[in-house]
Amino acid sequence: MAYVVAALVLVGLMSALNLLLVVGVVRRLREHSAELAALRSGGTAADAGALSSFGEVALRDGSPVGAFTAVAVEGEPVTLGTFGDRPLVGFFSPGCAPCEEQLPAFVEFAANRPGDRDTRLAVVVGAGEETAETVERLSPVATVVVEPDGGPVQQAFGVTGFPAFILVSDGLVAASHYQLHALADRDAAALPAAG
């Protein structure tokens, strides 16, 4: 009889411990869900609570951009020096819902930004026919490069997620973000000083 009581007490303690762990996991999942919802709705990570590096998709502000060489869809060679003093760079991936949401805003912003399409670089990460529509939409406003995931331009900018938008000034990241509006505000503030 003593063994049965001991076994029941042990099972009860294990059940209580399991319940505490499940409550902790559920709480953490709710926090992550709130953070993702804030990020998808255009909010910031701070809106959902403190985050460390969650949401970073490219090199941080002030980081040097790595050297790269690529070929634009028109066939010309592309390096960072090709784009002047303060280029705008956007990274997109076909089939990425946030990329599709941000693409029209990028096209409009790029078209209205001072300078011609040679001051803007759009990188489409993918291959073949899947990239054709995105390339077609970006070509009128930017020099477009198509490369596979982990390609040289993506590595040079430290891109880990899509979409990613970067402003460069003198070879350094002036601003980077996954939401174009955050970058556009910083660009508008800096352009008069740069002009």
UniProtKB/TrEMBL annotation:
> What keywords are annotated for this sequence in UniProt?
Isomerase, Membrane, Transmembrane, Transmembrane helix
InterPro entries recorded: Thioredoxin-like_sf (IPR036249), Thioredoxin_CS (IPR017937), Thioredoxin_domain (IPR013766)
* GO MF annotation list: isomerase activity
Among Gene3D superfamilies, the record links this protein to: Glutaredoxin (3.40.30.10)
What are the Thioredoxin domain coordinates in residue numbering? 59-195
Stretches that traverse the bilayer:
6-26
Designated name of the protein:
Thiol-disulfide isomerase or thioredoxin
